[in-house]
Structure formats: C-alpha cells, structure tokens
Specification:
Arc Repressor Mutant, subunit A, 11 strands, 9 helices, 4-stranded antiparallel β-sheet, Rossmann fold
C-alpha cells in the first residue's frame, strides 16, 4: 500500500518513511503543503499523513482543498498543537484522525492500520470484468489463474482501474506513477503497458488496455460486459 508523508521537518519525515517501509508500506515524502496537494491529487495513495504547520500551504488548507475536490483518501494529521480547538479544526476540515507530537511509533502504526482497515474492501481489492487486483499482495487474478505484478506494473494497473472510463495520457501516468521529479520518459509507460497486456492475457482476463491516439490508455471489458 502507498502512503504519502507531508512533513517539513526532514528528519522526522525520513524517519517516518523508514518506519513505514519496515512495516511493508511504500511511502513517498514531500516537504510542503503545495507539493503535498499535488501528490495527493493523483489519487494513487491509500493514506496521507500530514503535518499542520508547513511552508507554502498549511495542512488544514491542504486537507480542505482535497475534500472539496472529492478526494476521499484517509488523512492522519500530525501536529505539535494539542489544544482541543486545533484538533476539532483538523477534523472539521476533513481529516480522519489527529495525532499530537511527540508520539510513539506504535501509536502511529496503530492509527495507520486502523484508518486503512476502515476502508474495508475498497482498500483490499479492485475489480473489473472477470479480473481482480489485490492491493495487498499486488496480484492480478482471473478465476483460478493469477500473476504477481512488479511495483511499477501494479501502480500503472491500479491507476487504470481507478479510472476505467477515462483515457489517461502517457504524461499523466508518468506523473502519477513515476513522480513529478522522475527522469522517466513516455517510453517507460509503453513498456509497462506492454508487460501488463501480456500478464492480462496470461491469466485469461477479459480486460484489455486500449490505446487512443493522442489521448492515452483506458481499460475495456470484452463483449461489453
């Protein structure tokens, strides 16, 4: 599962990333609210952990913007402010839980796991046609046949399944999967789409990845199912 950490204290941010990685999570770090908003808007994260007091845009504003854009990703707010009114403000802006610094690692992980469990089946699996994408094991399956995806294959497939009726351009896929600062090029997208097409075929999936010239890629289910 992918987690976005938005925290301007670099030492704490890096420490959180290591802690999450030790527990099997794939975490990305950004260090201000504006970049936090840009990354969160991609929709590829299962959870967002954010500080409140940050440069460029504070956590309250970032959360409020995300909720106005109908992005429902669970949000855990971290802050040194312990006053009741600040905690209420965070929840009113749209955060799901509020953790006051300093906190114990076990407490943070308990919050993370509780918020992820709260998502139920939406977090565990995505389905289209006869095909399922398991978000925990990164496995693509159809009936009795399944195949494990690499990290990038999984991210591309999940993004396509999150937008089954929309064409996603190569540029959009690059930004959302490889990141804004990546040196990856559009050919990387073509290569991974090719890998996914072969794996979909290998499990007998009725889902295909279709390309529309100048518009990008989308998923289709055979026979209009």
């Amino acid at each position: 599962m992918k987690i976005l950490v938005v925290e301007d204290e670099k030492r704490l941010s890096d420490s959180l990333k290591r802690l999450l990685a030790e527990k099997g999570f794939d975490a990305d770090n950004v260090y201000d609210g504006e970049n936090g908003l840009l990354y969160a808007e991609t929709g590829v994260y299962d959870l967002i952990i954010t500080d409140v007091m940050m440069p460029k845009m504070n956590g309250f504003e970032m959360v409020e913007r995300l909720r106005k854009e109908k992005i429902s990703t669970p949000i855990l707010m971290l802050t040194a402010k312990s006053q009741l009114e600040d905690r209420i403000s965070g929840l009113n802006y749209g955060a799901d839980y509020y953790l006051t610094k300093p906190f114990e690692n076990a407490e943070l992980l308990a919050c993370v796991n509780a918020l992820l469990r709260r998502q139920g089946g939406q977090v565990d699996e995505m389905r289209l046609g006869n095909t399922a994408l398991d978000l925990n094991s990164q496995t693509l399956s159809s009936g009795e046949r399944s195949v494990r995806l690499s990290a990038k294959e999984f991210d591309v497939m999940r993004l396509l399944m999150q937008n089954p009726k929309n064409n996603l351009s190569k540029e959009t896929i690059l930004e959302r999967v490889w990141g804004f600062d990546s040196e990856a090029v559009e050919n990387h997208v073509e290569v991974y789409v090719g890998f996914l097409r072969k794996k979909l075929k290998s499990i007998g999936s009725d889902v295909s990845i279709e390309a529309v010239r100048r518009l990008g890629y989308h998923l289709e289910v055979a026979d209009g199912q």
